[in-house]
Amino acid sequence: ARKNGYSRALIIAPEGDWSHEITSAFSQQWQINGGTVVDALHYGTKDDMNQRIRDFLRISASEARGRQLRQFLGKKLESTPSRRKDFDMIFLLAYPSKARQIMPLLRYYYAGDVPVYSTSIVYAGHADAMKDKDLDGIVFCDMPWVFQHQTGTGSSGSPQ
Fold it and tell me: pTM of this prediction?
Protein backbone atom coordinates (compact mmCIF):
# COMPACT_ATOMS: atom_id res chain seq x y z
CA ALA A 1 0.00 0.00 0.00
CA ARG A 2 2.83 2.42 0.82
CA LYS A 3 4.58 1.55 -2.44
CA ASN A 4 1.35 2.43 -4.23
CA GLY A 5 1.43 5.88 -2.64
CA TYR A 6 -1.11 5.47 0.14
CA SER A 7 -0.32 6.91 3.55
CA ARG A 8 -3.50 7.40 5.62
CA ALA A 9 -5.06 4.12 6.76
CA LEU A 10 -8.28 3.15 8.43
CA ILE A 11 -8.30 -0.21 10.19
CA ILE A 12 -11.36 -2.45 10.40
CA ALA A 13 -10.78 -5.49 12.60
CA PRO A 14 -12.55 -7.77 15.08
CA GLU A 15 -12.27 -7.32 18.81
CA GLY A 16 -9.89 -9.65 20.63
CA ASP A 17 -6.28 -10.39 21.45
CA TRP A 18 -5.42 -12.00 18.08
CA SER A 19 -6.77 -8.99 16.21
CA HIS A 20 -5.03 -6.56 18.54
CA GLU A 21 -1.67 -8.23 17.90
CA ILE A 22 -2.07 -8.08 14.12
CA THR A 23 -3.39 -4.52 13.99
CA SER A 24 -0.68 -3.40 16.38
CA ALA A 25 2.02 -4.97 14.17
CA PHE A 26 0.43 -3.42 11.07
CA SER A 27 0.24 0.00 12.75
CA GLN A 28 3.87 -0.10 13.87
CA GLN A 29 5.17 -1.13 10.45
CA TRP A 30 2.86 1.33 8.68
CA GLN A 31 4.19 4.19 10.80
CA ILE A 32 7.82 3.09 10.39
CA ASN A 33 7.24 3.34 6.63
CA GLY A 34 5.85 6.87 6.95
CA GLY A 35 2.14 6.11 7.11
CA THR A 36 -0.50 7.25 9.56
CA VAL A 37 -3.29 5.19 11.08
CA VAL A 38 -6.18 7.65 11.06
CA ASP A 39 -8.75 5.58 12.95
CA ALA A 40 -9.74 2.02 13.80
CA LEU A 41 -13.04 0.18 14.07
CA HIS A 42 -13.03 -2.92 16.25
CA TYR A 43 -16.23 -4.88 15.72
CA GLY A 44 -17.85 -7.56 17.84
CA THR A 45 -19.39 -10.77 16.56
CA LYS A 46 -22.93 -9.54 17.22
CA ASP A 47 -22.48 -5.94 16.07
CA ASP A 48 -24.81 -4.44 13.48
CA MET A 49 -22.16 -4.02 10.79
CA ASN A 50 -24.40 -1.74 8.73
CA GLN A 51 -24.61 0.79 11.56
CA ARG A 52 -20.97 0.37 12.62
CA ILE A 53 -19.60 0.98 9.09
CA ARG A 54 -22.08 3.80 8.52
CA ASP A 55 -20.95 5.56 11.70
CA PHE A 56 -17.25 4.78 11.13
CA LEU A 57 -17.35 6.41 7.69
CA ARG A 58 -19.28 9.30 9.27
CA ILE A 59 -22.30 8.94 7.01
CA SER A 60 -24.60 9.54 9.99
CA ALA A 61 -22.81 12.81 10.76
CA SER A 62 -23.10 13.90 7.12
CA GLU A 63 -26.84 13.21 7.15
CA ALA A 64 -27.19 15.16 10.39
CA ARG A 65 -25.43 18.15 8.79
CA GLY A 66 -27.91 18.02 5.93
CA ARG A 67 -30.85 17.99 8.36
CA GLN A 68 -29.37 20.91 10.30
CA LEU A 69 -28.88 22.91 7.13
CA ARG A 70 -32.48 22.28 6.06
CA GLN A 71 -33.74 23.37 9.48
CA PHE A 72 -31.52 26.45 9.55
CA LEU A 73 -32.56 27.61 6.09
CA GLY A 74 -36.16 26.53 6.53
CA LYS A 75 -36.16 25.16 3.00
CA LYS A 76 -36.55 21.77 1.48
CA LEU A 77 -33.04 20.92 0.28
CA GLU A 78 -31.84 17.74 -1.28
CA SER A 79 -28.47 16.61 -0.01
CA THR A 80 -26.33 13.58 -0.66
CA PRO A 81 -24.43 12.26 2.33
CA SER A 82 -20.68 11.85 2.00
CA ARG A 83 -18.09 9.77 3.81
CA ARG A 84 -15.11 11.03 5.73
CA LYS A 85 -12.18 12.04 3.52
CA ASP A 86 -9.24 11.71 5.90
CA PHE A 87 -8.00 8.32 4.63
CA ASP A 88 -6.78 6.84 1.37
CA MET A 89 -6.74 3.09 2.12
CA ILE A 90 -8.30 0.53 4.43
CA PHE A 91 -6.63 -2.36 6.22
CA LEU A 92 -9.33 -4.99 6.73
CA LEU A 93 -8.75 -7.86 9.11
CA ALA A 94 -11.66 -10.25 8.70
CA TYR A 95 -12.55 -13.85 8.00
CA PRO A 96 -14.28 -14.39 4.65
CA SER A 97 -17.83 -14.43 6.04
CA LYS A 98 -17.39 -11.09 7.79
CA ALA A 99 -15.48 -9.56 4.87
CA ARG A 100 -18.42 -10.51 2.64
CA GLN A 101 -20.59 -8.32 4.86
CA ILE A 102 -18.14 -5.43 5.16
CA MET A 103 -17.09 -4.97 1.53
CA PRO A 104 -20.62 -4.32 0.16
CA LEU A 105 -21.19 -1.85 3.01
CA LEU A 106 -18.00 0.03 2.14
CA ARG A 107 -19.22 0.26 -1.45
CA TYR A 108 -22.70 1.33 -0.39
CA TYR A 109 -21.37 4.03 1.93
CA TYR A 110 -19.23 5.72 -0.74
CA ALA A 111 -15.90 4.01 -0.04
CA GLY A 112 -15.95 1.67 -3.03
CA ASP A 113 -13.14 3.66 -4.66
CA VAL A 114 -10.80 3.22 -1.69
CA PRO A 115 -8.27 0.36 -1.92
CA VAL A 116 -8.74 -2.35 0.70
CA TYR A 117 -5.77 -4.44 1.84
CA SER A 118 -5.99 -7.53 4.00
CA THR A 119 -4.12 -10.59 5.18
CA SER A 120 -4.68 -14.01 3.62
CA ILE A 121 -7.23 -14.74 6.36
CA VAL A 122 -9.79 -12.94 4.17
CA TYR A 123 -9.66 -15.79 1.64
CA ALA A 124 -11.23 -19.17 2.48
CA GLY A 125 -8.60 -21.08 0.49
CA HIS A 126 -10.91 -22.36 -2.23
CA ALA A 127 -12.61 -20.46 -5.02
CA ASP A 128 -16.35 -19.87 -4.75
CA ALA A 129 -17.34 -17.41 -7.47
CA MET A 130 -20.77 -16.64 -6.01
CA LYS A 131 -19.57 -15.96 -2.48
CA ASP A 132 -16.25 -14.41 -3.43
CA LYS A 133 -17.89 -11.78 -5.64
CA ASP A 134 -18.30 -9.63 -2.52
CA LEU A 135 -14.54 -9.88 -1.91
CA ASP A 136 -13.65 -8.45 -5.32
CA GLY A 137 -11.09 -5.70 -5.07
CA ILE A 138 -9.44 -6.75 -1.81
CA VAL A 139 -5.66 -6.91 -2.12
CA PHE A 140 -4.06 -9.72 -0.15
CA CYS A 141 -1.23 -12.18 -0.52
CA ASP A 142 -1.10 -15.89 0.07
CA MET A 143 1.29 -18.73 -0.59
CA PRO A 144 1.66 -19.28 -4.36
CA TRP A 145 0.70 -22.96 -4.24
CA VAL A 146 -2.78 -22.06 -2.95
CA PHE A 147 -3.50 -20.30 -6.24
CA GLN A 148 -1.46 -22.68 -8.43
CA HIS A 149 -3.57 -25.59 -7.23
CA GLN A 150 -6.75 -23.77 -8.22
CA THR A 151 -5.52 -22.73 -11.66
CA GLY A 152 -4.14 -26.17 -12.52
CA THR A 153 -0.48 -25.23 -12.44
CA GLY A 154 2.17 -26.95 -10.43
CA SER A 155 5.05 -25.56 -8.48
CA SER A 156 6.91 -24.85 -11.71
CA GLY A 157 4.06 -22.65 -12.89
CA SER A 158 3.29 -24.82 -15.93
CA PRO A 159 -0.16 -26.36 -16.51
CA GLN A 160 -0.61 -29.93 -15.33
Answer: 0.80
